[in-house]
Amino acid sequence: MCTEVNMDDLITIHHEMGHIQYFLQYADQLLVFRDGANSGFHEAVGDTLALSVKTPKHLSWLGLLKNNKNDRESDLNYMFSTALDKIAFLPFAYIMDRYRYDVFSGKIGTNELNSGWWNYVLEYQGIIPAVPRTEDDFDPGAKYHIDADVEYMRYFISFVIQFQFHKALCDASGHAGPLYQCDINQSKKAGELLSSMLSLGGSQPWPVAMEKITGSRVMDAAPLLEFFQPLTDYLKAENRKNGDVAGW
């Protein structure tokens, strides 16, 4: 890819290198098993690494962040920035395949292909179109995965399990402190644990690969909630103070 010196490309590079590292780790498997434990695993690996890379601690280590202040305001700003990337994406990723499944099943009829999309966007994202839309429009078709019939659940899954992976690797690295501050940089134990999962490729069912790295055979949003808990507490307190009501 052609990159520029900016945060987005730094994260994208690590995401794509995660795919490449997965390829390398399972290269010795039989051809049929040279794949991720499931498609969500493949997407999650690079993002797991990026959770460390984008921390102020790691950016300071790289020399990209000067005069880093390890205070509450900086922590909240970092979590807020990360939440706008991770949390805001979840309902979008969910409705992508929810919409597709319901079109396939006939729950959303051919006479409501656009309104059916916007009903989900309002319900789960709280967004309405900026201008009136009709069935003469097909707004979901603006997304490649809808037109090309590419499943999107892999991304929803990856945005959950990457926090499970991150927590497991942080624990292996000996990290002490809030999860959002963890940087596994230069931890051989974390690297060995990640490698033990990646090298399985698709040779085992995904719960086995999950257990290999996390000790659990199920997907669990608890680490995601733990990562953002200080921000959640802050926002709830601010909403109470200002009399704001969450939702739409």
Structure explained in plain terms:
The protein has 248 residues and is mainly α. It has eleven helices and no strands. It has helices at 7-25, 39-53, 56-62, 72-86, 89-105, 113-125, 144-147, 153-173, 188-198, 206-214, 222-242. The two termini are 40 Å apart.
List the helices and strands and how they pair.
Blueprint: H1 7-25, H2 39-53, H3 56-62, H4 72-86, H5 89-105, H6 113-125, H7 144-147, H8 153-173, H9 188-198, H10 206-214, H11 222-242
N-end to C-end Cα span? 40 Å
Secondary structure tally: strands: 0
- The helix/strand order is HHHHHHHHHHH
- By secondary-structure content and strand pairing, the structural class works out as mainly alpha
Helix percent reads 55-70%
Instruction: Give the amount of beta strand, in percent.
Output: under 5%
Q: What is the overall pLDDT average?
A: 95
Largest sheet: none
State Rg: 20 Å
Shape summary: globular
Number of contiguous helices: 11
Could you name the key traits of this structure?
mainly alpha
Question: What would a concise description of this structure say?
Answer:
Helix content is 61%, strand content 0%.
